[in-house]
Amino acid sequence: NIAHNGVLRSLPASIQQLTRLQEIQIINCPALEHVAVESEVGKMKLSHNQERVCVLPTSLKRLSISYCNGIKSLPQGIHQLTNLQELDISNCHGLEQWCELEENKMKLAHIEKKVCVLWRSSSY
């Protein structure tokens, strides 16, 4: 679990070395912007518009992200996580919108169980 971290902006690339990791829960990390890292050539980072690479281990079966409003999209390589069976996204406004775009639904088509929920509070 990665939880209640107000300074984490992206997952470390070293997470990919956890080759047997099957589940990640990311909860209440408001500064988290990416579930990926920027590509690097040597020590020089590529320009801002360059693609971010998916650093999640391919062994991953379940990914749960909640209360992380800084995340606006999943990495382009999400379709490469062929073992991913469950994606649970809740209370991540930008991420729920990303999941609803037709072009992104194809990237998630291989995932058996997808839950994208935004809880809206009502004020009376």
Automatic annotation (TrEMBL):
InterPro entries: Leu-rich_rpt_4, LRR_dom_sf. The keyword Repeat applies. SUPFAM superfamilies: RNI-like. Keywords: Leucine-rich repeat, Repeat. The keyword Iron does not apply. Pfam families: LRR_4. This is NB-ARC domain-containing protein. It comes from the Eukaryota.
